[in-house]
Specification:
0% strand; 2 helices; rod-shaped
Length: 69
């Protein structure tokens, strides 16, 4: 997966995070709020993983370009 692909995936996850956050703001149900908070935490972990993959891919791509030069 390229750095651009990972960044695109992270952007999609950010949109999902925002929609989930809006759900949290709209609920008064404590049980649902806990469930949504858990979902937010999971999405945040997924975003962190995608950003790590993007960073790694960018470094690999930069090394490949430097080797070609």
């Amino acid at each position: 997966m390229s750095a651009e692909d990972s960044l695109a995936a992270a952007e999609g996850l950010l949109a999902r995070l925002e929609a989930t956050r809006e759900r949290l703001e709209q609920t008064d149900d404590p049980a649902l709020a806990i469930e949504v908070l858990q979902e937010l935490a999971e999405i945040a972990k997924q975003i962190e993983a995608e950003l790590g993959r993007a960073r790694s891919a960018a470094e690999t791509e930069a090394e490949a370009e430097a080797a070609e030069a």
